[in-house]
Amino acid sequence: MDALIILFASGILTMFISLLKKPVLSLITASAGLFIAGSLLVLNFDHPLNFIKYEGLIFDSASVLFSLTIVVFTLLLTLSGYAYFSKEKDHTGDYMALMLFSATGALCMVSFSDLFMFFIGLEILSIPVYVLAGTKKKDLRSTEASIKYFFTGAFATGVLLFGIAMIYGATGTFKIAEIEAFINTNDTLPSFLHVGILLMLASFLFKVGAVPFHFWSPDVYEGSPSVMTGYMAAVVKFAGFIAFFKLFSVAFGGASDYWAPILIVVAIASMFLGNLSAIQQTQFKRLIAYSSITHVGYALLAILSFNSLLNVQSLWIYLFSYGFSIVVLLSVSMLIKQEDDSIASLKGLARKYPFIGFVAILALLSMAGIPPLFGFFGKYMVFSRAFGAYPMLVIIAIINSGIGIYYYLRTIIVMLSENDQESMIKTPHVLHYLVLSICAIALMVGGFVFV
Amino acid sequence: MELIILPFIFALIALLTPKALMRAFTLVAAAASVVLVLIHACYYYGSDHLVQIFQSNSNSFGFSLNFAYDGISLLMLVLVNVTIALIALANFKSPLAEDRKFVSMLFLMQFALIGVFTAFDGLLFYIFWEITLIPVFLIALWFGAAERKKILIKFFIFTFVGSLAMLLALIGIKQWANSFSYIDLVLANLPIDVAFYVMGGFFIAFAIKIPLIPFHTWQPDTYTVAPTAGTMLLSALMLKMALYGMIRWMIPLAPEALSQFQNPIIYLGIIGVVYTAIIAIRLKDMKRVFAYASISHVGLIAAGIIIFNPDTLGGSLIQMFNHSLVAVGLFLAVEVIERRTQLRDLDQLGGIATQAPKFAFWFAVIGFASVSVPFSSGFIGEFILIKGVYDYNWIWGAIAGLSVILGAVYTLRAYQLSMYGTPKGFDFPDLHWSEWLTFAFISGLVLLLGLYPNLILNFINPSLDQINSLVQSTTLLP
């Protein structure tokens, strides 16, 4: 609770600081706010503060862990995005404040205990992201991304609200615990509830970008500024998945016979479609977009196999490791000079900036699931937990890991190869080095520390 | 613990060493690790028990950092450190030897291999198994031939997909075991169909790495485009991981399925022996000849391992040791010729013996070791293996016996076409001392083991008996 308030307050503070038109001050305020929020979460890890009379948001140790993850990724992205944000001195603070507000929403989304608060969290999370996707005002594709994301997102929100209304109609409550009790105690469930679950499922699949609701994601990922692409892939997806897990594995767990088959089909389709499309890509950010569709497919395995609370741990490890890779890759993508970010323009990265190249390769290998990097442990945990119930699904996922290695490896070879033309890479900011070092350490030792 | 950490520290130091000192550093560091492992072999390892190097608590899903060695592992450790030292010595003259990235990757490879051979935890084994892929891939990518990229992607994907099959097998067996520690995995009582899939997963991973026919298609190309040092690493050390993995992991973990896999693996191995030997006889590129020769030799070793009786296991371990030494020697001979003439095509070579008599002598010695004449370690190994296959099934034993004849044909053919005949008009300076010394070391070791194979056998037999009794107790084998 304290972290939530600090984040919100520092967001407002950053907005006022931005009136001074000094980007550095905005950066300091925003990152200080994130840092304090993070430290409070660490300090009160065992005894998190809660609202006294309000029960819509409950901070337990799990949700504190998730909040910490969100704060860490937001902080890393704020730092590495500073070089981009500070290009427009008038608006640096605005952008950062919007990111902080969005992170506040994400915090609500991982600690809600009724559907009402969940919906509010989702909106607080989404609306700043719609705005931030369009911050490259002179770039048509950025505007397109913003509008596309907004329209499809608004539509999905409508579907979600309709689903919540149906569930309220069926169960008569917004509270997660009561919905869970209702489903577990009643033998025959009203068809209202089924429709509601279906509608909510659709809007969730939209938010996390799973097939067949993935069409927005390559365009939006490509058009948005890199830092926002990173935010969408790391934080928005994380919050979305945790909420997804809370609702479907906990609240609707009793009705899993109804939604699990749909999710199996969606997971298989996401893996194959993401991978097979990613092989064709020539643009770096589109590659990441398609590969993230594949990763959604893997993460859905964790939601499917919810037989114990340990699954939320495996889901967390998976998304946590994935987030670090995303932060690294999108920070690298910020360094590409050209407007269209083709993979070929990364040529010679590892030769010109060995450290950045090294971290980028680590991130790609971690995404591909090569041990001993963090990503391998995430993948392993998700797969092994799902193996008991869905062995065939795990085999399909492993086949997809085999397909995926191709495009990761191709990108790695591009980075390692010699560049005979003029380099497309900008000089990195010192904050980039800071962020990349943190991510490199996390990727290398994360598997042994957090698991 | 220092046994594992030291190469990693060397790999880091190599990144900071100035170029002028690089060659000396490489040799000293490699020699130091040889001395270290010999100290372990002579003093710490006394009898048949397991020497625990390091053990951590197991974490939430039963994974622990569990390093140990028994006789077999220790033999492999000696092999790794000796071979790395030989590779460092063999490449002393090449420009690679003063390249930071190369030296660093060489030691990283050593680190990963030692990890593979000392891991006594299933997931830890998998982790180190995968790490080995990175240095060898980078060495080939940075220093390989011009047309390497596609071939290396193929190599990486092939081996990675194989490893994924092993990961699946590990995930599968974990459902029946408490933790990933070796003893838990061995004691897991698998139903027969699960055992079949577990062994199948391991088999795919190992068959690709060994490589067995028909999983070998990545190998000749990769050997050819990799720089010779990379080829040495691949053939002398990397495929030994797979053979070791068969002995240590594949068979003891799922012995219930052994009888189902015995015939197919023996057939694939023996067919590979003959098929690749015939291809090797027809080839023009020297490096490719020895690449196919390597497949031919290891096919027999794999067949010997899967027969799984103490005699053939001992024979296959001797043959593994021998194969590593000979592979380094043969690829060094190719490298010696290539360094001086930039040629590998047997048609364009010839008459070297008159210009470089020392090289001709040592190449001949290594050639004979590869043909496994009596008094070489190859003779002992191959004899035991062929006898083992013969006892198992005499027809296949007779076919396997062809390997001796065919091996002589392709090795001596390559020797004759390159060394004898009319000189082709290129200048061929004789051996540098580092090259000469490498050949001498290899020949000495081959001769020593050929005369006194008990040096190895005494070492490994207690551990082999242990594994054997473990397997016998859980299987219905006679």
Short recap of the structure:
The complex is a heterodimer of chains A (451) and B (478). Chain A has 451 residues and is mostly helical. Chain A has helices at residues 2-17, 23-43, 61-85, 92-111, 115-133, 140-171, 176-185, 191-208, 216-223, 226-251, 256-280, 284-304, 310-334, 349-352, 354-368, 374-387, 391-416, 430-449.
Query: Number of helical runs of chain A?
Result: 18
For the largest beta-sheet of chain B, the strand count, sense and barrel status come to: 2 strands, antiparallel
Which structural category do the helix and sheet elements of chain B fall into? mainly alpha
**What distance lies between the first and last C-alpha atoms of chain B, to the nearest angstrom?**
40 Å
Assign the structural class of chain A, choosing from mainly alpha, mainly beta, alpha/beta, alpha+beta, or little secondary structure.
Answer: mainly alpha
Largest interface: pair, residues per side: A-B, 28 and 29 residues
* Strand element count of chain B: 2
Average predicted confidence as pLDDT of chain B: 87
Explain this structure to me?
- The complex is a heterodimer of chains A (451) and B (478).
- Chain A has 451 residues and is mainly alpha-helical.
- Chain A has one domain.
- Chain A has helices at 2-17, 23-43, 61-85, 92-111, 115-133, 140-171, 176-185, 191-208, 216-223, 226-251, 256-280, 284-304, 310-334, 349-352, 354-368, 374-387, 391-416, 430-449.
- In chain A, α3 runs antiparallel to α10, α10 packs antiparallel against α13 (310-334) and α15 (354-368) packs antiparallel against α17 (391-416).
- Chain A is globular and about 70 Å long.
- Chain B is mainly alpha-helical.
- Chain B has one domain (2-474).
- Chain B contains 20 helices and two strands.
- Chain B has helices at residues 2-16, 19-44, 71-90, 100-118, 122-131, 133-143, 148-174, 182-187, 192-209, 218-225, 228-253, 258-282, 286-307, 310-341, 352-355, 357-371, 377-392, 394-419, 433-451, 454-474; strands at residues 51-55, 66-69.
- In chain B, α2 runs antiparallel to α3, α3 runs antiparallel to α4 and α3 (71-90) packs antiparallel against α11.
- The longest helix of chain B is centred in the C-terminal third of the chain and has 32 residues, at 310-341.
- Chain A binds chain B through residues 310, 313, 365, 370-372, 376, 380-381, 383-384, 387-388, 391, 394-395, 398-399, 401-402, 405-406, 409-410, 413, 416-417, 451, and chain B through 59-61, 63, 123, 126-127, 130-131, 133-134, 138, 141-142, 149, 152-153, 156-157, 160-161, 164-165, 167-168, 171-172, 174-175.
